[in-house]
Specification:
Strand content of chain B: 5-15%
Strand content of chain A: 25-35%
Shape of chain B: globular
Helix content of chain A: 10-25%
Shape of chain A: globular
Radius of gyration of chain B: 22 Å
Distance between the termini of chain A: 38 Å
CATH architecture of chain B: Orthogonal Bundle
Distance between the termini of chain B: 59 Å
CATH architecture of the largest domain in chain A: 2-Layer Sandwich
Oligomer: heterodimer
Number of strands of chain B: 8
CATH class of chain B: Mainly Alpha
């Protein structure tokens, strides 16, 4: 991985202790990225980056998380991790143990799909918006009305 | 006789936003109040979510160019350049000297225009209407200048892989220096008009103090961090583009309050002027786009790899995490936006303050909601 000073692969179980060590060493939480590697690997790749102000050196912690695994939440170590984890949940369906409030952050409440999964393709516009398709029948599935939010 | 009781006051919930003049975009703060004191806060975001990250996955690197400046519409040129430089780094595209320097000039002008808009809007939040007009007058001069190069006023799409779409014309340095002279004549007016104002000082000094531990927990960067005494600026920490060759300072203040954030941004505009002057003096001649690079028409196929590319936007550290699988489209693009982290800090910073101070604190963050929601 380029653009980082140090990149480390760790097991999901080692996340909390690695983040605690980073926090103690003066690192701030910079970003968290989830990558869909379900096809063909059956896993999500998570890239956490941390950095420090005094001697800038980006540290990347990378996790290979099997599908359906529950990951440990870093929200007790870094405040902003809570929002990043909510994003990973709504966009990919990843779950985090010990998260204080694992609900939608950016998507409308009750959204029933995880849009950043590679397997997700947007439903046709008519499901969201009647004006796009005036000939659509009145009842076209109640579940999607919620998705519209 | 009525005897005072020791029972705690009832708390109630107040929704500040999604439509509120001080949120500058669609942000809702669920405030738990006791009287006028804030006991708890829950920012509700996502109202302007447009799925930029999903869009990046189903269009080519060049087709994503218009999206970049629509994340942070106030310093869009910096985001536009950041995307192009990230892809250039991933794909190994060379950039001519003139384009590198021109990008710095345009980016710094964009930073000043963003800070000027913040200055006017922030002071308007505090009840001062006049500075808004001065700030917008100056900002207009910058937008006019940028428009003459890029063709746009706000959502710039001028950067190309390997340079810029259009060259700076022969008259550009003269017009740029005119704008700089005008700005330099203005700083003292801001001091007289704003900084020494008693009401302004009382509304801002000692209000909304951010501690370093809070900044670390929430990943706060940019002027809010520098106003807490940390000289962290990507332009110095990881110099990109042509920044390493210019002399400039990172303004900091030790106080960490709203007033300090005001002072830091005003000082930053002066440093940007310094950078632009040096860049104009040393503007090299030559091509603006790499020979053989046909800009947006070429279908790029960067090699397999993962890249983190960081730039300093007007609001703080902006990061692009780009994953390529060798295709014509990015496999994954994640945007680490500064306003997102700076807004998160409100969980810690707002409880204990008064509602009126919350407006001052929010204003001092210079949030752009579309980059929070992406």
């Amino acid at each position: 991985m380029s653009g980082v000073a140090e990149s480390r692969w760790i097991a999901p179980g080692g996340l909390v202790s690695a983040a605690e060590a980073a926090r103690a060493a003066g690192f701030f939480f910079e970003s968290m990225t989830c990558v869909d590697r379900l096809d063909p690997h059956g896993v999500f790749e998570l890239i956490y980056t941390f950095n420090r102000w005094d001697e800038p050196a980006r540290l990347a912690l990378r996790v290979w998380a099997p599908k359906d695994d529950v990951l440990p939440s870093l929200s007790r170590v870094y405040g902003i991790a809570a929002w990043n984890e909510r994003e990973a949940w709504e966009f990919y369906g990843l779950r985090f143990a010990g998260h204080p409030n694992l609900t939608w952050l950016l998507l409308p409440e009750d959204t029933e799909f995880h849009p950043l999964l590679k397997s997700f393709t947007a439903p046709p516009p008519s499901i969201f918006d009647d004006s796009m398709n005036p000939s659509a029948p009145e009842d076209h599935g109640g579940a999607h009305d919620h998705a519209h939010g | 006789m009525i005897t005072p009781t020791a029972e705690p006051l009832d708390t109630y919930t107040l929704n500040m936003g999604p439509q509120h003049p001080s949120t500058h975009g669609v942000l809702r703060l669920k405030l738990t109040l006791q009287g006028e004191r804030i006991m708890g806060v829950e920012p509700v975001i996502g109202y302007s979510h447009r799925a930029h990250e999903k869009m990046a996955e189903n269009r080519t690197y060049a087709q994503f160019l218009p999206n970049t400046s629509r994340q942070d519409y106030l310093s869009g040129l910096i985001y536009n350049v950041a995307w192009v430089e990230a892809v250039e780094k991933l794909a190994g595209i060379a950039v001519p000297e003139r384009a590198l320097v021109a990008r710095v000039i345009l980016s710094e002008f964009n930073r000043i225009s963003s800070h000027l808009l913040w200055l006017g809007a922030f002071l308007m939040d505090l009840g001062a209407a006049t500075p808004f007009l001065y700030a917008f007058d100056d900002r207009e001069a910058i937008l006019f200048l940028l428009e003459s190069v890029t063709g746009s006023r706000l959502t710039y799409g001028t950067a190309r892989f390997g340079g810029l779409s259009r060259d700076l014309d022969a008259d550009f340095p003269r017009r740029a220096r005119e704008v700089l002279a005008r700005l330099k004549a203005r700083w003292q007016e801001f001091v007289d008009l704003v900084e020494d104002n008693v009401i302004f000082r009382q509304r801002t000094q000692g209000v909304g103090v951010f501690t370093l531990d809070q900044c670390r927990s929430w990943g706060v960067t940019g002027p809010p961090l520098r106003a807490s005494g940390v000289p962290y600026d990507i332009r110095k920490a990881e110099p990109y583009g042509a920044y390493a060759r210019y002399e400039f300072d990172i303004p900091t203040r030790p106080e960490g309050d709203v007033f300090a954030r005001y002072m830091v941004r005003v000082a930053e505009m002066q440093q940007s002027v310094r950078i632009i002057e040096q860049a104009l003096d040393g503007l090299p001649e030559g091509p603006i786009l790499t020979e053989g690079s046909i800009g947006i028409k070429k279908r790029l196929k960067p090699p397999v790899g993962t890249l983190y590319y960081a730039v300093e936007s007007a609001r703080g550290a902006y990061g692009i995490i780009l994953v390529s699988e060798g295709g014509t489209e990015p496999y994954r693009a994640k945007f680490r936006t500064p306003s997102y982290a700076n807004l998160g800090l409100m969980y810690d910073a707002l409880p204990g303050t008064m509602v009126a101070d919350a407006v001052a604190v929010l204003g001092s963050l210079d949030l752009v909601m579309p980059e929070v929601d992406r």
